[in-house]
Amino acid sequence: MSASTARRKWRIPGAAAFWRLPPVLFLRGFLKAPAMVGSIVPSSQRLIARVLAPVDWARVRLFVEYGPGVGTFTRPILDRLPADAVLIAIDPNPDFIDYLKREIADPRLCLVRGSAADVEQIIADLGHDAADYIVSGLPFSTLPEGVAARIAAATAAVLRPGGAFLVYQFSAKSLRWLAPAFPRIDRSVELWNVPPGFCFFGWKD
């Protein structure tokens, strides 16, 4: 192998490309707004599988994701989503929205910069009346006062009967904001994650 070939093979990404790498972008998002990002590292495949396990994919027409970040859950959701369904991903961080627009070319994905607390208005503006499932890793315990309760209430209002709010957290305290909006909540824990993830599935009966 020539020296020039070796240099090409081991070339270090330029500054602009480096800052767009998913782990770096995820860390930047955490440092910029730690209250809005639940963990300093993306979720494990085991946690993703556990969170999405309750979904009846055949009945899904509208799936909503709060805080997609660098697409750790977005891609697995799209892998499972029916061809005629839609995924609306809502994130307040423009860096994450811009990254996902560049990296995921899927007509079923609709990216919205905004707050999960405004989910009712967001899906109405996009021509939908209700969601089948909503997934969230937003850290309820560190959100500004009152925001977690608003998100839980808005989510319960916008779900179809039989739908569920799929929540993964890194603190069991988050249940206190979910319980008032969801009388029936299934719970589990995924230990193969850093940190271990608490899963809460709030059902709209």
Automatic annotation (TrEMBL):
Which keywords does the record carry?
Methyltransferase, Transferase
Species of the source: Sphingomonas changnyeongensis
Any GO MF annotation of the entry: methyltransferase activity
Listed GO biological process terms: methylation
Name assigned to this protein: Methyltransferase domain-containing protein
The signal peptide, as residue positions, is none
Q: InterPro entries annotated for this entry?
A: Methyltransf_25 (IPR041698), SAM-dependent_MTases_sf (IPR029063)
Q: Enumerate the spans annotated as Methyltransferase domain.
A: 64-163
The superkingdom listed in its UniProt entry is Bacteria
From the UniProt record, list the coiled-coil ranges: none
